[in-house]
Amino acid sequence: MWAHLGWQDIKQRYRRSVIGPLWITISMAVTVTALGLLYSQLFGQPLAEHLPYLAVGFIIWGFIGNCVNDGAEVFISNEGLIKQLPAPVSIHVLRLLWRQVLFFAHNLAVYFVLLLIFPQPLSWTILLAIPAFVLIGLNGAWVILVVGTISTRFRDIPPVTQSIVQLMFFMTPIVWNYDQFKSSPNPVIAERAKLAEINPFMHFLEIIRQPMLGSPIAWHHWLVCGAITVLGWAVALFVLRNYRARVSYWV
């Protein structure tokens, strides 16, 4: 059911559109190209290096950011379905997650085009992108469940999550290169760049961006993501056990 509903969401969104879901890919391609041309000049980096870096970061961030923002309204937006259909709340969580997976798959077309234009030093480590995405998806599921449940009870949460996601976009190495600042000859800049490690979004970005760009794998990112996954699902199971029956009343 959740797979069918998620697919119908995309079909309904682009109903009567000539090229349909291809608008997702076109929008991503235009945004990445414009920002890549701008920030490669601002940071003094070759376009062949910075554009794929920014593109992969943007594609991953689109998945993460949408899981948080849309997750805050996952139950609110499905009020009618929740009240009329006696189904577990997990259906709505999986429906949203599946929809974001389809968006992510569309945006990957931009990545493959850039690989043809700017070849990257890929190796067998690119296969790590698969378990990395699965790990990000697992975290997306518990975030949707927890934030969605809290937002159903407290309707001020969705605007807060949108502000946080927008802020974290600029604080996460997406348009700027973390390694460039970390290796800066200025010791002050290099030291402050290490503060980016505090940002949990950075670790999820790196576990999939490094294999997709053929960069050396930093395994501490995987350890951090694994710890967040365990802790997050512990919170999600607690919320699910204690508050799932109240969602239909709160909406």
TrEMBL record:
Pfam families: ABC2_membrane
Family in the record: Belongs to the ABC-2 integral membrane protein family.
Protein name: ABC transporter permease
Protein topology in the membrane: Multi-pass membrane protein
Gene Ontology molecular functions: ABC-type transporter activity
Ranges of residues in domain ABC-2 type transporter transmembrane: 5-212
Source species, domain of life: Bacteria
Keyword flag Cell division: no
GO biological process: lipopolysaccharide transport
Subcellular location: Cell membrane
InterPro entries for the chain: ABC2_TM
Annotated Gene Ontology cellular component terms: plasma membrane
Keyword Transmembrane helix included in the entry's annotation: yes
PANTHER family assigned to the protein according to its UniProt record, in alphabetical order: CAPSULE POLYSACCHARIDE EXPORT INNER-MEMBRANE PROTEIN CTRC (PTHR30413:SF10), INNER MEMBRANE TRANSPORT PERMEASE (PTHR30413)
Keywords, in A-Z order: Cell membrane, Membrane, Transmembrane, Transmembrane helix, Transport
Transmembrane feature ranges: 21-39, 51-76, 96-118, 124-148, 160-178, 219-240
